[in-house]
């Protein structure tokens, strides 16, 4: 039965190798690839999925594309979708953990990616325009959208901002009691398997990691790596720009402090050099796919002194441990959400939630634009502005594939 989903998985693969710009820009690409080009889901469903995933910890764009697969083919296709989506980025970042010791960061040719931020802004503008037409229709949604634009822009780097805005916006549209769902509510049994699996892995990882540390097992580093990465994937809100500072503190800052305070205990700890870590943080922003794929890089770097085979294992541990909690959480909570939204209080919340998503998109566009030279009246600023406008126009008024736009952007960046 999976054979009929091969065209969908091909589309997911194209998305995985061309999705630049972080989770907000990823949503724009999903809208083009999975809504406009081939209607796998509706615009309303995509916005709802995105809003729902922003309420959960973990990789929101990964959870969103996983839900698209879940809608089309249940849990088996959701798992395949997740694997296809994360594999290219994780393989690339894992490979960099092998290559980095042999190259200098200054040797990395960054010209190839110089216009990627401008292209990402073009995608975001396109998504915001498309979403605006279906989500902002009355006074309350206008107010919610504008407030979310301001709050998101000011507190963009705060991990709590997205879930807080979505919850408050949903509460705001419950002031009105007019909208009531027109379908019956039938009692539904909650399937707890994914939730119990998530908790069990969390507790077992902590137990074995601490035991291996105290008894100094030979497998201490791989166990510590899995526990650290799984814990981060389970608790981080706010996406990759929150995850990376957490990893920097865990693997680069804390080991240096421990060497001073507890030299004996620091003997067999996981440590990644600050320069290596910051280089990896720069590389992951320049490749397509989820930013959480940096876990594959940190996994490889953490075990690089234990041999090539163990280093490959480290890359695999990092990739699995960072994305597994996201998948378990979203596949557990989404059926619950689908059931709860049949109640009037949740049904009315969707209007505010969708308006909040539009506000977050607009604020993300403005936030990225502030780091792009646009108003300097130089050749660079004119080129940046041209990339933004051309990307938007191609997406809005043509049926050109998004991967083609990305490829042209990379080539022009290299040669201009």
From TrEMBL:
GO CC annotations, alphabetized: plasma membrane
Signal peptide: none
Keywords: Cell membrane, Membrane, Transmembrane, Transmembrane helix
Transmembrane segments: 12-35, 77-100, 112-133, 139-171, 192-209, 229-248, 283-303, 309-340, 352-370, 382-415
Coiled coil, from the record: none
Membrane topology label: Multi-pass membrane protein
Superkingdom to which the source organism belongs: Bacteria
Any one GO MF annotation of this record: chromate transmembrane transporter activity
Primary residence: membrane
InterPro entries named among the record's database cross-references: Chr_Tranpt_l_chain, Chromate_transpt
Compartment(s) where it occurs, according to its Swiss-Prot or TrEMBL record: Cell membrane
Family classification: Belongs to the chromate ion transporter (CHR) (TC 2.A.51) family.
PANTHER family: CHROMATE ION TRANSPORTER (EUROFUNG)
UniProt name for this protein: Chromate transporter
Source organism of this protein record: Flavisolibacter ginsenosidimutans
């Amino acid at each position: 039965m999976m054979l009929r989903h091969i065209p969908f998985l091909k589309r997911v693969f194209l998305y995985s190798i061309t999705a630049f710009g972080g989770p907000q820009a990823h949503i724009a690409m999903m809208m083009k690839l999975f809504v406009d080009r081939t209607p796998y889901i509706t615009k309303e469903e995509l916005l709802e999925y995105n809003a729902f995933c922003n309420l959960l910890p973990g990789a929101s764009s990964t959870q969103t594309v996983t839900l698209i697969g879940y809608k089309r083919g249940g849990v088996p296709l959701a798992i395949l979708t997740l694997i296809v989506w994360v594999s290219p980025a994780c393989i690339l970042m894992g490979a960099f953990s092998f290559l980095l010791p042999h190259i200098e960061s200054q040797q990395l040719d960054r010209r190839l990616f110089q216009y990627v931020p401008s292209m990402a802004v073009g995608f975001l503008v396109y998504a915001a325009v498309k979403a605006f037409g279906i989500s902002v229709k009355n006074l309350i949604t206008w107010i919610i959208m504008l407030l979310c634009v301001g709050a998101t822009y000011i507190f963009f780097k705060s991990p709590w901002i997205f879930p807080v805005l979505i919850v408050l916006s949903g509460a705001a549209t419950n002031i009105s009691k007019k909208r009531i769902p027109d379908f019956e509510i039938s009692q539904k049994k909650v399937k707890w398997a994914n939730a119990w699996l998530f908790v069990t892995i969390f507790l077992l990882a902590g137990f074995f990691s601490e035991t291996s540390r105290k008894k100094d097992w030979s497998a201490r580093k791989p166990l510590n790596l899995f526990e650290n990465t799984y814990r981060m994937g389970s608790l981080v809100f706010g996406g990759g720009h929150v995850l990376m500072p957490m990893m920097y503190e865990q693997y680069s800052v804390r080991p240096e402090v421990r060497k001073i305070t507890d030299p004996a205990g620091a003997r067999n700890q996981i440590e990644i050099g600050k320069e290596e870590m910051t280089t990896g943080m720069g590389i992951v922003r320049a490749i397509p796919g989820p930013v959480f794929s940096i876990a594959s890089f940190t996994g490889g770097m953490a075990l690089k002194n234990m041999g090539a085979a163990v280093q490959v294992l480290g890359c695999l541990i990092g990739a699995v441990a960072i994305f597994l909690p996201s998948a378990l959480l979203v596949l557990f909570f989404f059926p619950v959400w689908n059931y709860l939204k049949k109640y009037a209080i949740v049904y009315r919340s969707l209007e505010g939630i969708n308006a909040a998503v539009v506000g977050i998109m607009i604020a993300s566009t403005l936030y990225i634009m502030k780091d792009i030279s646009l108003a300097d009246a130089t050749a660079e600023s004119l080129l940046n502005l041209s990339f933004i406008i051309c990307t938007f126009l191609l997406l809005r008024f043509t049926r050109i594939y998004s991967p083609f736009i990305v490829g042209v952007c990379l080539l022009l960046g290299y040669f201009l």
